[in-house]
Design brief:
By secondary structure, the chain is α+β, with helices and mostly antiparallel strands. About 50% of the residues lie in helices and about 15% in strands. Strands 1, 2, 3, 4, 5, 6, 7 and 8 form an eight-stranded mixed beta sheet that branches.
Length: about 400
């Protein structure tokens, strides 16, 4: 296994930006086929973007969070489904780095392995000799059909009647796939349902979630890495915020690409660019995108800074990361709504990107962990002196 010098942030962002034409070309195919195009996956792999959260001893980069956010946001300017799937692969790859080292040796034996995962503990395990037996199903399992491993949440049923949150590492080949991803947005992410039926999971591939949520894990060789010392939920939340941020930029790109020569029908404006309404819309959308960028980058810089300094996380800081995620989604959606409204009736054609961007952003804002209302309420509870109403902090 080769150690690899990580490319600098600017280089990875440049590689991501160069993929935009290909991603835009493949976007309609991905919507129609409800999964990523093989050419998209090949391009992500060749650019080294699947290695951002792989431990260096397996040829990975162990990229910091700011790098991950900037790269995924750039991918989202090309296609939202691709960026979302890449973000899920990044989180799940990072999660694999928290398992015992012998499990990592198994998972990362294949270069550029793709690992998907689910945070919702919708399966139940029971103790068995040498491990657990798992039954249940996971919806919204993004990219799983094009992945080799899953890192999925579940609960372990103890004999005393108590349930313990756990994370399990599963070969995708051992799961049943239900092709039910028929949706309005992020169609290319292939977020189908997977099912475990009496699936035996060795004990080494069962990770208690309590310590993980507090930033503890079972890897010896990753213990000193700042990337793997970061807490789970702030890491996951900040990673997925990048897709929303990039989609906002994509909407701005799409709007300005079509602006030259456009008129406002049924008005005297021969050029939409000359209308004061357009000026106000562009300025307001830009302001909201700037605010989204502030929140996404603040969350990333907080993660990197605290990891580098070895600082513990307060409850307020954890909740503030959830707030940053909610605010990024909220402000991005507001910006995209403005630009979509300003794009006219011809923008409803499937060949016009902004209608897809609008649907993708709406889908993100409905995601349980990304919903602005949920995240803002959570922070408000803690700011007002109440206990959090979730373990996912």
């Amino acid at each position: 296994m080769d150690l690899t010098d990580a490319p600098p942030t600017a280089e990875l962002v440049r590689r991501a930006a160069e993929l935009a034409p290909l991603l835009q070309k493949n976007a309609i195919w991905q919507e129609e086929n409800r999964r990523l195009h093989d050419g998209t996956i090949e391009a992500l792999t060749d650019a080294g973007l699947l290695r951002m959260r792989v431990p260096t001893r397996y040829g990975g980069y162990e990229s910091d969070m700011r790098t991950v956010v900037e790269v995924i946001a750039e991918i989202a300017r090309g296609d939202g489904s691709t960026a979302w799937t890449l973000s899920v692969w990044a989180i799940s790859t990072w999660m694999a780095g928290l398992f015992p080292d012998e499990v990592q040796d198994e998972i990362f034996a294949v270069p550029d392995v793709r690992i998907s995962g689910i945070l919702s503990p919708s399966a139940v395990g029971v103790p068995a000799d040498g491990g657990i037996v798992l039954n249940g199903r996971w919806s919204f399992n993004s990219g799983v059909q094009q992945s080799s491993w899953n890192t999925n949440a579940a609960v372990l049923a103890h004999p005393n009647g108590e349930y313990e949150p756990i994370m399990v590492a599963l070969p995708v080949s051992e799961l049943e796939v239900i092709d039910d991803w028929h949706t309005a947005g992020l169609r290319g992410s292939g977020s189908v349902t997977t099912v475990a039926k009496d699936l035996f999971v060795p004990q080494a591939r069962v990770l208690p979630m309590g310590p993980v949520l507090q930033g503890q894990h079972r890897s010896v060789r990753n213990a000193a890495s700042p990337v793997f010392q970061a807490p789970f939920m702030p890491t996951a939340c900040t990673t997925i915020a990048a897709t929303a941020l990039g989609l906002g930029r994509a909407a701005r790109d799409a709007f300005f690409e079509r602006l030259p020569g456009r008129k406002i029908t049924y008005t005297s404006y021969e050029s939409q660019a000359e209308a004061p309404l357009t000026h106000l819309q562009v300025a307001e959308a830009t302001t909201k995108l700037d605010e989204a960028e502030f929140h996404a980058y603040r969350a990333a810089d907080r993660l990197d800074g605290k990891a580098a300094r070895g600082e513990a996380w307060t409850l307020e800081e954890r909740a503030r990361t959830r707030l940053d995620l909610g605010a990024t989604c909220q402000r991005t959606k507001e910006a995209v709504d403005i630009l979509n409204t300003a794009s006219g009736g011809s923008s409803i054609y499937t060949t016009v990107p902004i209608q897809r961007i609008e649907r993708d952003v709406q889908t993100l804002n409905l995601h349980a962990i990304m919903h602005p209302n949920t995240n803002l309420e959570l922070y408000g509870r803690i700011a007002c002196g109440l206990e959090p109403n979730t373990l996912y902090l």
